[in-house]
Amino acid sequence: MGKFDVVFLQSALDDVEDIVLYIAKDSAQSAIKMHDYIVDTANRLSEFPMMGRAVPDEKISRRGFRMIGIGKYLLFYKVYDKRVVILRVLHGARDYPNLLDEIPNDESDSG
User: Fold this and answer.
1) Per the domain annotation, does 108 fall within a domain?
2) What is the pLDDT of residues 45-74, one digit of tens each?
3) How many structural domains are present in the chain?
């Protein structure tokens, strides 16, 4: 299996920025570590695109969305032919089924 391209939707980039800014209020070093952890996890998907699990919400899972836990956060993505699209990175306590349901089918196909 060759490498997959990993692409972040703007919504996922915004999520990462929000996470980093929030953590940086207490510790710049911890914020940098979390940023790197998120990016490193996403980049591992280029070699292991199925390493996450199907989203437990049936409606979201039917759309092919997968997830990986990163500390208190969840990275949501979808795998295409040779591309992994990072959809969102959300705190695990958030109502992710409704937030992911807001992603149009064609938006997750772009990138």
Assistant:
1) no
2) 999 999 999 999 888 889 999 999 999 999
3) 1
